[in-house]
Amino acid sequence: MVFTGIVIGALSVALVYFGNPGNMGMCIACFLRDITGSLGFHRANTVQYLRPELLGLSLGAFVAALAGKDFRSRGGSASFVRFLLGALMMVGALVFLGCPLRDILRMSGGDLNAVVGFAGFIGGVLFGVFFLKQGFNLGPARSDNISPLGGYLFIFGVLALLALLFFRIDFNPAGGGPLFFSKEGPGSMHAAVGIALAAGLVVGFLAQKTRMCLSGGFRDYFLIRENGLLIAYGFIFLTAMALNMYFGFFHLGFEGQPIAHTKHLFNFLGLFLVGQTAVLLGGCPLRQIVLGSEGDMDAAVAVLGMIFGAGVAHNFMLASSPKGTTLFGEVAVVLGILVVSLIAWAYREVD
Amino acid sequence: MDQLDVRGLSCPIPVIKTQKALEKGKLPLTVLGSGNTARQNVTRFASARGYAVEVSSETADEWTLVIKQG
Question: 20 to 30 A from A156, CA-CA: which of A65, A99, A269, B54?
Answer without folding.
Answer: A99
